[in-house]
Structures are given as structure tokens and as C-alpha cells.
């Protein structure tokens, strides 16, 4: 007897439809799974067998063959346990074949017969498509976001058999959790002083400029970075869905409403491996941190401590907004558009921002700086030195502008960029800078001098002009970039050469 069940498997952050064929026939008793199952998928036999026995269903003493089609695609994970079990139930005539028509199944089975959540349930649910998707009850809400059909929750195999036989009605879907508004816990007003750094944060959020903060330990670099997601508007619907799929596939806990719509903040530790950072892995191709940060912020604290291959892996996503991971049988593409924020000490002792204070000596200091490659440093439109706030600022000073107030200005700047046909000022092509960021004669003179003194490269020049455009938009300062704006943009871009001299001094 043959049964055919619809299901799906995960490939990267996308679900792919899979047809599970179960054949129970003559021959020596045995169980085989064909159609490129991975290790976890092959182990389905033991879980399905135990789950059936726990549910009071006898294991067939015949030859069982499970085929996962299409056969050319690798199938991974435990999500095929449930469709294999249902296929067996149909093939053994425990459940009538017409009961599973139009239904798709995804779920892992516990040895006690319980139906469990699997990683990537959102893309898997999307791959099942129309009809009725049957999943673990706690996954119903997430699958309902992405499917046009119905979603039903099956807590156990026993309950599922009763529903499929028509002996019991399908259980009610669990009540929808109230859609909690994303709460911003870290507010900018908590940061004392740091006027320049706050401005840089607003510019990063408004113009999509990558930001590097150089400063000694305790200067508040992490505190500043954590306040950046609060300055980013909610994700656009398409990005929100894309990011939700990625988080689901990566096993990141989804917010109560199911959909990720606040800008994510990911802060991998400097010991993170290249696979953890960009994605991949030998068995399942999981999205990495760069993709989990899609639409939000990737914060790399202690930038110089990350392994060189890990930092090299950032090149592709920074240039193209995607990561491609190739394994023997497939290439998977993960979206990875994020705002890169990094922090580092100026030198190993951390005191190098103040001339003469460094204890490392020029060799050690420069060797430390060289750990971050020139091309990566060049990616940061905003590079600023952050020092510890002064005692007066910590004790007395007025609280700074709040996140809500700054967000208004960030939105205004983004609207101005959109009106010029640009999503972010960081993307303004060089040949359109004269048109979109025209310079006053004074501003042009300042830039000319910087170029003549070799303090600015051609590429650096474009980046300074883009940042100046964003600074003008934040203040709604009109189309012309004047001296004040250019000077400020220059001060927000400490050249590595200058900063190395500071260390060596
Ligand atoms: Zn030092």
C-alpha cells in the first residue's frame, strides 16, 4: 500500500515543497529512507517508530520504504517525522487516505508521540502553501502569517489520528497573543554628554552610514551602539517577512506577534566563527549573524579581536547585501542588508586616544591597528574617537535628546532622501553628488585643501560629501552643503593614518 503526503524541507532560509511517499509491502521487515535524507532525517525511523508505539499503533512487520521527492534535493532536519508517520498510518490503513487530501504536515515527533516545533517553521509553512497545514500547536500563529490556507495544530499523534478519522474535531487554535508594541528599553537620553557621538548615531540611522567608534574601555561605545536600533524606523513589510524567515531558519526566538518588525540588533562575540558570522555549516545551511541582522544593526565590539577570515566574510554582504553559501549540492543565498557598527580600542592598552598616554609603544599599537584591513576600514563612512565623558557631564549635565526626538529628525532625513529617489544617502552614486549634494564655495575650498594635504582620498571625498548630505537633512538645512557641514563631516571621519599617529605619539 502506498501513501503520498505533502511536506516541506528547509534549504537556507527558504522552505522547499517535499512529497513523502511511504510504501509498505512484502519482503523482509525493514525501514529505509531514500531521496537524500541527512543524518537527522534518517534518524526519523527511530523517532517515528517510538512515537507510533507510544500512540498504541503497532509497527508493521513488513518492508517499509520512504521516498522523499524530488530526489535530487537534500532533505534535512526532523520536520519530516510527522509526514512520514502520517504516511505510515495511511499505508497501514489506520487513517483513511482521503482524510489527508489537501493537507500538508511538518513537525518533529517526540518518543512519547508528541508533535514538536522545528527550526524554520515560518519558511516551511510558506512552502506548504495553500490547503491545510498541520503543525505543532505552538507554531500555528507563525505559519498563519505566511500561508493562504488554514493552519491546524496537532498536539500529539493520538489526537491527530482521532481528528483524521473524524472521531474528534480539530483542536481550537491557541489564542493569539496580544501584539506587543516593540518597547525601546535603551533610550538615548540615558547617555550623558557625547554630543558628537549622538550626532554620528543619528547620521548612521538616517543615511545608512556604517559607523566605527574608537575609544578606551568604559567610554560608552557599547551603550551608544545599543541605542541605534531605536533610531531605525520599523521594517518595511517585505523586509519584515524576509527577516522573520531568516530568524525562524536560524532558530532565533520570534517576537510574541510572530513577525519581526522592529530593526534587529545582533552583537556576535569576537570569538564567533566564520560560519556563525556569514552562515553555512556542513549539515544544515543556517543563516549567520549578518543575515539575522538583516534590516537592522550588526554590532561588532572589539573589532580588532575578530579573526581575519571572519572579517573578510563581511565583504560580500557589505557590497551586495547578500551572502552566498555553496556546498556540494546547492548554493543558498541569504539576504544580509545591515548597518555595520563596530567599536574598538585605539591600541591594546586602550589609552591611545590621548597623545602620550599609550603604554603599548608604536610597534604594538600599529600591529594592533593593522588587524583591521584597509578595505574594511574604508567601509565606515563615520569613524569617530569616543572618549570617556567628563565628570561634570556624568554628574551635572542635562539629559541628552531622547530617542523619540532624534527619531523624528531621522525620519525627516529619510523622507528627504526618498524625495530625491535615494533609499539612503550612503548609496548616492559619485556621479550624482554634484547634483544632490552641491557644495558652497567655502565647503569646496576646505575639501580642496584636505585633498592637497593628502588627508583625503578620492573615495574618502565622496564619503564625506554623502555624510554631509545626511547631516544637512537631519537639520533640514536646505540643498547646499556649506563649510560648517563639511567640517563636521570631516570631523566624523578620522583617517586611520591620523589615528595611528595619535597612537604612535
Ligand atoms: Zn596603548
Descriptive notes:
It contains 22 helices and 18 strands. The protein is an alpha/beta fold. The model has no long low-confidence stretch (mean pLDDT 89). The structure holds zinc ion (ZN). Zinc ion binds next to loops.
Task: Based on the model shown, name its key terms.
505 residues, alpha/beta, four-stranded mixed beta sheet, 22 helices, 18 strands, 38% helix, elongated
Tell me briefly what this model is.
With 505 residues, the chain is α/β, with parallel strands linked by helices.
Low-confidence stretches: none
Which band does the percent of strand residues land in? Answer: 15-25%
Specify Rg, calculated over alpha carbons: 28 Å
What is the number of helices?
22
Q: Tell me how many strands there are.
A: 18
Helical content (DSSP H or I, runs of 4+): 25-40%
Cα distance spanning the termini: 82 Å
Walk across the major sheet and give the strand order: 11-14-17-10-18
By secondary-structure content and strand pairing, the structural class works out as: alpha/beta
Query: Largest sheet at a glance?
Result: 5 strands, parallel
Shape: elongated
Bound molecules: zinc ion
Mean pLDDT: 89
Layout of strands and helices, then pairs:
Layout: E1 2-11, E2 14-25, E3 30-34, H1 39-42, H2 44-54, E4 63-69, H3 81-91, E5 103-105, E6 108-109, E7 115-116, H4 121-128, E8 132-135, H5 140-146, E9 150-153, H6 157-164, H7 195-207, E10 211-214, H8 221-226, H9 237-250, E11 265-266, H10 274-278, E12 279-280, E13 286-287, H11 289-292, E14 297-300, H12 308-312, H13 315-320, E15 322-326, E16 331-335, E17 339-344, H14 362-370, H15 374-379, E18 382-385, H16 391-395, H17 403-419, H18 433-436, H19 441-452, H20 458-474, H21 483-491, H22 496-504
Parallel strand pairs: 3-4, 5-8, 8-9, 10-17, 10-18, 11-14, 14-17
Antiparallel strand pairs: 1-2, 2-4, 6-7, 12-13, 15-16
Helix pairs in contact: 2-3, 4-5, 7-17, 7-20, 17-20, 19-21, 20-21
Bound molecules: zinc ion.
The site of zinc ion (ZN) has 9 residues, from loops.
